[in-house]
Amino acid sequence: ILAGRVGLRDVHATTKKALDILREGAEEKEKTYDALVWLSRPFTDADVDKICRTRDLVTRQNTPLRVVHRRTAMVRERTIFEMKLRRCEGRGPHFAMLELRTQAGTYIKEFVHGDMGRTSPSVASLLGCDADILELDVMGVEMDFKPPVC
């Protein structure tokens, strides 16, 4: 099914038990994102190399300031499995597209800007400058799950 730029595939009717299994497996999911990122200085080839070489990075995330009023205040460790960084042609030297493959539950916005030091390491701390996220798209969710046939 396509509606504009959103696509759905492998849609099935399911049971409550299957949904419970999906929720229980939330920690094992991997999610892939595309993010438009801004840096306070122009991106360099060294930035691209550093980000692209980083694998299986464990980040410690305090509950983000933007959600702490409705979520339990705690520290979560999440893994960033892979990152790719490419320049955005036509947007200027401060902009790039960041592709991420992460453990489910990672606060992506905070991983980019660092949430005032509450997420470490972050893209900002890795590159040694301010960073912000302007757009974020979920590109995929991976999890071993075979839905029961209804």
UniProtKB/TrEMBL annotation:
Keywords: Isomerase, tRNA processing. The keyword Protein biosynthesis does not apply. It is an enzyme of class 5 (isomerase). GO terms for biological process: tRNA pseudouridine synthesis. GO terms for molecular function: RNA binding; tRNA pseudouridine(55) synthase activity. Residues 5-142 form the Pus10-like C-terminal domain. This is tRNA pseudouridine(55) synthase. Its EC number is 5.4.99.25. Belongs to the pseudouridine synthase Pus10 family. The lineage of its organism: Eukaryota, Viridiplantae, Chlorophyta, Chloropicophyceae, Chloropicales.
